[in-house]
Amino acid sequence: MLNGVMLLWFVLTVAALLFVAIDIRSTPESPVLKWGFVLLTAYTGVFGAFLYVLGCREPLPGLHERYTAARWRQTLGSTMHCVAGDGVGILAGAVLSAIFVLPRLAETTLEYILGFAFGWTIFQALFMRNSMPGGSYRRALASTFVPELLSMNFLMAGMMPTVMVLRKYVEAAENPTSPAFWFVMSMGLLVGFVVAYPMNWWLVANHLKHGMMTVRPATAAPVAYDHGAEAKAADTPVEAAMGEMSMDESRSPRPSISIMTLLSFVVLAAGLAIPFLLMP
Questions:
Q1: Displacement of CA 44 from its chain's centroid (Å)
Q2: How confident is the model at residue 226 (pLDDT cuts 50, 70, 90)?
Q3: So where are the chain's domains?
Q4: Which sign does the torsion angle of CA 51, 209, 113, 104 carry?
């Protein structure tokens, strides 16, 4: 029965991935978020395609800015961006751990390091550097470090216990050449997405991470919305709406960044402890 479920999962994932990869080309979204939705769909199959349609796909021409201005859609874009980027490093770490037969703690550490490194230095700082004055990569690294850390901690807190528990019951789930390995990793990233969503809500609400963006040609730049704020005219030829990635200067985040950082590590520790409590 499990083999049948996995076969259906992969068939539907291929169909969903083809749909998103083709359809998203006509959606006026930032290129990095387009790639993010493609990667998310590769990880989570029909769930990723559903989230793309529900949260990003322009319902009617000219409505993308207003459609994606809702806070929950902004948070969806932020969480998707995190999982898409971190997921590449996490999967690389899982494959390397299987090849070198690393113990559980070493595997977790490697996946965390590679996931955070790729998500922070590439998907966040490198691809988002144009939102910094002068397109500074160094400033992008500085401004995205803490948001990426908090989101990554919650992602790992959901993903790792899911993967470890499923490996206990799914045969060949630790072999990268087996479909079971990729099925289990997909389930882990899907749960990680759900767990990371509340933290990304806080990050977006406090302007520490961007959400959805709108990219149109200069000749078609419409009114843009910034996290549901007052409408403002787009002032660049390419990016019609760029989310702020720095703290709102008018107020400090509540709860504070220090408290949320501590909370993220507590949640991460709890998530990593679950497999040891559930399995001998």
A1: 11
A2: very low
A3: 2-278
A4: negative
CB 44 within 8 A of CB 52: no
* Amino acid (one-letter) located at 195: V
Q: Write the DSSP symbol of residue 56.
A: T
Q: What pLDDT, on a 0 to 100 scale, did the predictor assign at position 276?
A: 77
Long-range pairs, 96-101, Cβ under 8 A, ≥24: 98/174, 98/175, 98/176, 98/181, 99/176
Tell the residue number behind the tokens 């470890």, with chain if given.
164
Distance between the two ends of the chain, CA-based, in angstroms?
A: 26
Q: Pick the range with the lowest mean pLDDT from 85-94, 119-128, 145-154, 232-241.
A: 232-241
User: Per the structure block, which two tokens stand in for 263?
Assistant: 């909370």
How many C-beta neighbours within 10 Å does residue 159 have? 28
- Three-state secondary-structure class, residue 233: strand
Query: Phi, psi (5° rounding) for residue 155?
Result: -60, -50
Alpha-helical regions (H) of the chain:
2-23, 31-44, 46-55, 64-68, 71-99, 104-118, 127-128, 137-169, 179-205, 257-278
